[in-house]
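User: For documentation purposes, I need each entry recorded in a consistent format: the amino acid sequence on its own, followed directly by the corresponding C-alpha cells. There are two entries in this batch. Please keep commentary to a minimum and don't merge the entries.

Assistant: Recorded as requested. Entry 1:
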Amino acid sequence: MLHALLKQYWGYDDFRPLQHDVISAVVAGKDTFALLPTGGGKSICYQIPALAQDGFCLVVSPLIALMQDQVLQLRNRDISASFIHSGMSAKQVDDTLDRASRNEFKLLYVSPERLLTERFLNYAEWFQLNLIAVDEAHCISQWGHDFRPAYRKINELRSLFPKVPMLALTASANEKVQEDIMQQLELKTPEIFTQSVVRKNLFYHIRYTENKQADTTKLFKPSKGSGIVYCRSRKRCVETALMLKNEGIASGVYHAGLPKDERDFAQKIWTERHDMVMNATTAFGMGIDKPDVRIVSHYDLPENIEEYYQEAGRAGRDGAKAHAVLLYNYNDIERLRLSTEIHYPPEDFIRKVYSLVGDYLQMPVGQGFEQLQAFDPIVFAQNFKLEMLKTLSAVRLLDREGFWQWNDQANINTTVQFTTDRTTLNYLEKSEPALSYIASGLLRLYGSIFHYPTNIREFEVAKMLRIEKPQLDEGLKRLAALGIIDYQPALNGSTLYWMHDRYAPNTLVLNMKHINELRKVHEERIAQMIAYVQEENICRNILLSAYFGEKTEESCGGCDACKRHAKLHKVKDEIKERIIAIIKAEQQISIKELTSKFPEIDSHKIIDYIRLLSDEHLCRIYHTGIIFAS
C-alpha cells in the first residue's frame, strides 16, 4: 500500500534510502527519530503515513513559507491539507481548527507558537490524529544551531494524545542534540534512523586566501554549471554578483531585503538555467530542490558546522560529482572569535531594545498578545541610532527567549475564504455588480476558496479579471467589510509576532542564566568551526562524520585534505627516486653529503627517507654513516 500511495500521488516507483523504514515504523505506531540530510526527502516520511491511516497528521513546522509551499503542493496533488501560523487572523485560525476537528484534512501544519494556545486546545480534544510530526526537530534543543523556545511545548501534546506516535525529523544534529531531541520530546523507546552524513559525490574544500574575489571568479570561470555563493551580508551578495557578471558569468542576487517578487523571479530564473550562479544570504535555502548545483561556495565563514553542512549539501543532489568550497582568511577567524560579544549583548542593552521596540511599534504596555506587525529592525536601529549588529542580536535573543517571534522574511501570502452562502452571493449580484464580478472571478479561479483559506496572487487575479490591482484590493476590502469573505492581505519582509502582552520595564524578566548558557554553547560551536577549517590533514568526510556522531575511517580521496595528502606522497616518491639515483651514481656517500644535496628540505626528513629505503633493501647504511647502493 505504501508504494501504491507513493506512485499515485508523487509518481515515484520507489522510496529514497531509509524513507520506507521510517514510514513503516511510524505506521506500526512507534515513536521515531530520523536524521536525513538535506535533500533526503523528510516530508514524505510523514505525508505517506498520513494518507495510509484514518485521521490526520499534525505537522509542527517553524517556517511559514515552507508550510505554505508544502500545503500548495499537497493540494495540487488532491491531498487535503491546511496550515495555522502567526500570519493568520483569528477567524481564519478558528475556521481551520473547526475543519480539522471534523477530520476534513489529511495534514495540518502548525507553527510551534500556535500550539497549545487556548484557541488550539478548544478544538484539540476532537482531533483524530494518526501522527504528530516534528519537522526541524533540532529547534527544540538549546544545544542546536536554531533553538526555538516554543518547541519546548510540543511534548505537552503527549498528554493530549497519549496513543499517537511522534516522528522527529532533522537534517543536521550532532549526538548531543540528537539525544536532547529525543529526551525533550519524551519519545518512548524510539526507532532511530540516521542516514550517513557522507555523500560520496560531494567533495569539500577549505581554502585559505587573501584574495577572495579572484578565487571566487576562478571557481566559476569557465562556466561549470549552476552554483551558489553564500555571503553573510546583503551588500556582499550584490558585490559578488556584479564581480562575476563583469567576468562574463551569469549571476543573480537573493536576500531578505529584496521585494518578494524580485526574490521569486531571481530564484525562478536560476532554477531554470544550468549555468547561473546565485549570490545569496542564508535566506536562500528553504525549499531549494535544484538537483544540478555543481558548486556551493562560502565567501564568508559560517558560524557553526551544522549551518555549513546544510548549505554545502545543496550541491550535487542529482548524484553527480559536486564541490563545496569554503574560502577564509584570518579576518574571518577573528570575526568569529569576536562574534560572541555581538551575539550576546549586556542585559541592560537587551532591556533597552525590548522597550524601544514597543515604543517604535506603538504597542501599549499590557497589550499585543498574538498580534503580528511589520517590523524592520534595520530601520528601527537607524531610527534610534543603535549599534546595528548588537540590536539585531538583541531582537533575536528576545525571540529565542519566547517574548516574540521575529521573522526576517515572512512572505505571508494574501489569503481569502468565503464566509457566506450562495444565496448571499445571488443578492450581491443584484445590489453590487462590481463586487459580485470580483467574487465570481475568485470562485472560478480558486475551487478551494469556499472551503478553507486559500492563497491568491492578486496580480494574476487582476489580470484575469481585466481590472487594475488597486481596484481588486479595494474590492477585497469591501467584500471583507460586508462579511462575505475573510481577507488577510499579504505581509512581506520582516515581521514581529508578539508572544505575550507587552511588559512594563519593571516586570520584564530575563533569564540571564539561560542566556549565559547559550553564550557558552555559541563559544563552543565557534571553536569547533575554527578547528574544522584549520585542520589540514584529516579527510573532511571523516571530520564531519565524527562531529555528527558517525564513525567512518574511509577517506573521500577528493577533498582538500585528501588531495594535500596525495600530493605529499607524490613528493615523497619523487624525493626517494632522487636519493636512489644519487646513491647509485656515487656507489657510496655519507649521510651529510647526501642531505646537502637537498638544501630545500629539512635534513631530518631526508634521513627518514633514507631509513625507509634501507627498510625496503634499496640501500645499505653502515655504522660509520656511509650509505652504499644495494
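Entry 2:
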Amino acid sequence: METADLEKAVRRVLLALNIEPDGFRLDRGFLARAQRTGQARAVAINGVADQFVFMGFRESTDPEVSVEGMAAEALASLGRYARTSCERLVVGWADPRGQVFAAAFVVSPEGENGRLVGSSWTEPEIWPEPMIDASKSGDDTIDDALDRLESIVRNRTDYRGSSFDSEFDRALRLVDMALLHFGGEGQSTAEHPAVDVPDETWSTWLHYFNHSVYDEWKRIGGSVRRALPIPMRPSTDGPLKGLRVFLSYARPDATTLTWPVHEALSSCGATVWFDRTQTTNELQLALGLAEIIASCDVYVMCASDEFFERAGYATQEFAWARQHHESGGNPKHFLVVARPNTILPSAVAAWPTIELRDHDREQLARSLVVHLQHAAPRAVTESPLAPLAAPLLVTALRPLPQQADIPALWRRIQHAQLFDEIDQETLTRLMSRRVDDQHATEVRKKLLHLGDGLEWAGTLEDIGRWPDDPFIRDIRLRFAGARAVVGTRWPLNDDLAWESGVVDDVEYLATQRVPVIDWPAVPGWDDGERRLALRYHAGLLRVLHGLLKRGLWGGLLRVSSSTFRAWEEELYTRQRECYDALLELRLNGRLSWQRDVPTWDALFRTWSELLTRSEVPWREPVPFAVLHLLVANAPYIAGIVAETGWYVSRYGGRASQSFIARGLDAPANFEVYALGPGVIDSEATAGIENSLRLGCMAGTKGSAEIRLSWKGPHFSASSIGGESTGPVPA
C-alpha cells in the first residue's frame, strides 16, 4: 500500500461531505509513522470539524461488515476536543491483501458516528445521497449520468410503487450535480411525463432534456460526443409562415418549457430565434440581443418562477422588447407560455397567456396558431406595472464620508459574520424538508437565538426599530424569514405547543408589503443587492406558500384553516410584488446585464481572510509593526476596503476613508482607498506622522494591485517610512 492509494480512496468519498477532493494531501511521512506506531492516526481535513482517521491494517476483508465498528473506533481514538468538535468523519484502513478502503460519515448530534454517506468500494451514484464520481472526467460524468437516466426511463415499467420516482429523482440530481460541479446550471425538471404514458412521449422528453443538458455543458466548455436526433424538423410552410418569433426563457426551463414551444412554433412555419439553435458571436453577446429582438414580430415569454426570481438576462430581454415596442418598433405581438398556476407579474398580466399542460405538442401548436395567426398588435402599456414606492427610484448615492463610522461598520460586520456562521445549504434543506443530522441541529439552535448580541429579537417583531442600514436589514429579513419557514414546517425546538414569534412572522410575510422594495440605496447596498434580496425573498415566499397549500405546518397547529387560506391568497400578492420590483429595476435600466459587480460582503470576506492570514505576497519587506496593525485591525480594514472597492467598482474614480488604528503604543491614522482603472493616486506623497495608507488599484482586464505605505517612528527603527506593493490574489 502506498500513500497515493490511501489518498485516492479518501478523495473518492470526500464529495459525499461536500469537501473538494483535489486539495486533500497527506504528509510524506504520514503512512510510515502510522505503520510504525500501529495506532490510529488522525488528520484534520478542513479544520477540526472534518477529521480523517487511518486505522492501519485490519483482518476483515469485507468492508461492508466492518465499516460501522471501524468508524466508532476511529471516533473514539480522537482527543477530547477533536471528538466533541468533529462533525464529519472519514475513516480509512487496509486489509491483509493491501486493498485500501475509506468511508465518510456525518457525526450525530450526540457525538457518535451517524449515517454512512459514502464508501470507496461502492459507486458514488448508489450512495445514500447520490454523488458524481470525482475520478471521472467531466465529459464522462455527463455522459454516464444521462445514460443512467435513460436506462431508468427505458425500464420504468419494471419499478414498483414509488420506486421509479425515487430512482428517477436520483438520476436527475446526478445530472444537476455534474453541471453544478463543473460550473454550470442545473436544469429544471419539475414537470415530466407520468410513468404510464406512451414511449413516444418519454422519448420526446428525453430529447428535450438531453439537448438542454448538452447545450449547458457546451456553454461551460464541455464536449458532446454523441449525435442527438431531432424529433421534429422545422416546417418551411404552415399557418405561421413568415412570422419571426423571439423566445425568452430562463436556462433551467429549457426542457419543460422552451423546447416544446420552439418545436411547436417551428412546426407551424414560424422562424424562431432560440439561442439553443443559434450561433452567437462575441460581438453579439457584447452588444446584447436588443437588435435581434427588434427584428422579430413576436416576443414569447416562457414564464416561470425561475424567469422572474433570477431577474437575469431573460428579464433584460423583456425590457428591450418593451422599449422597442413603446418607441414604435417591433415586436408587435406579445405572448406568455407558462405552466398552470404560474404567478405572473403585473407587467404581463393582460398579455395573452397559454398554459402548457402535460406534453401535448399538437394542442400547444394549435393554441399558438390561434393566438398569433390573426392577432392584432397589442399596446404593452395597457398592462402597467403596479405602482412602487419612491425609494426604489432614487439612484444617487451620497458620497462616502471622509471618516469611517466605526460603530456602524462594526454592526454591519457582525451581521456579515452571522451570515457566515449559519450554513446556507443546511438552512435550505431545513426549509424544504425535515432534517435531523448534526448540521440541522446546529442551524436550528442558531435560528432560535438569531438576535443574541445584536440588539435584535431575532424575529420580524421589531422590524420597525431595525438599523437604517439596508445591508443589516437584508441579513435580518433573510434569516427571520427562513426561521419562520423552518418553524412553519416543524417547531424549532420540537415542542408542538411552541410558536414563539413564528405565527406573527408568517403573518407579516403574508400580509405586509415586501419591505425590500422601499429600502434606500447606500454605499455597500444598492439596486444590485436589492435584486439579490428580492430574489431570495421571492423564493422564500414561494416555499412558504407551498407549505401552506400542502398542509405542511406542523409548527403552527393552533392557527385556523381559514387563516391559512387568507394567508395563501395574500402570498400571491407578495410574490407578485417581488416580480414587479425586479422587472421595474430592469425597465429603468438600474441593473447591469454585461457584468456582475462584487457585493460588499463578498469583498469583506475576501479581504478579512487575506489580512487575518497575512497572505499578501508583498514584494518589498513590510515591518512587523505594520503587519501587526493589519492583523489587529483586520475587520475594520476589510470593511472599509470592501466599501471603497464596492464604490469604485460601480462608479469608478477614487474613494477613500480613514480611521484610527490601534494596536501599538500610539494610535495611527489609517487611510484606506481604492482607485478605478486609469486613475492616478494624486495623494501618493501625502501622509501625516504615524500614519498608514492601504490602497487597491484596479488595472486592465480585471487585474489589481495593493499598495501599502507607512510613515512614522513607531513602525521601523531603521527608517521613518516605506512602501510595498503586491498583486491582489484571484
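Summary note for entry 2:
The chain has five domains: 3-126, 138-219, 244-382, 392-587, 600-727.
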